[in-house]
Amino acid sequence: MNRAKYNRYFKFAVVRNPWDRLYSTFRYAERDVQRYKSSPLEWITHFPDFESFVMQGMTEEIASRHYFIGCQVNYLRLPSGEVDPDITIGKLEMLQEFLSSLTPLLPRLTEVGVRNASPGRQPLHEVYSVEMIIKVRQLFAPDIHEFGYVFPNSEHNKL
């Protein structure tokens, strides 16, 4: 698409907390592979638990390039490397508020329900060790910096 046409569009993106996104991806992969044997997330199921997946499976290359779990900011960059200032960015954690703020621009936008919610999901502070928190903070530093994310437990943010 040429630049003039691109500039005429209203653009928005929804990003997600990297710690929550990684845990969700691990849990989703378990279900996805049961349904689709050739799932591109199949490699994740080779790790016996979430901690192994984060500590041994997640690498800088995966965090920077993997289409499904790589840094989200990479999808919002212009060829110059800067985040496109014309993209309005919202957070999944505050999705309804974000969508409500877009209603004047997109009047057909309505409430969004929850789909694919993981049953039996534990709170993040129960599934992440200090070492895991630090590793995700390092791997997803571009997202954390660009979108202002912190681990959702204030005592761990002082690390």
TrEMBL record:
<dbReference type="GO" id="GO:0008146">
    <property type="term" value="F:sulfotransferase activity"/>
</dbReference>
<protein>
    <submittedName>
        <fullName>Sulfotransferase family protein</fullName>
    </submittedName>
</protein>
<dbReference type="Pfam" id="PF03567">
    <property type="entry name" value="Sulfotransfer_2"/>
</dbReference>
<dbReference type="InterPro" id="IPR005331">
    <property type="entry name" value="Sulfotransferase"/>
</dbReference>
<dbReference type="GO" id="GO:0016020">
    <property type="term" value="C:membrane"/>
</dbReference>
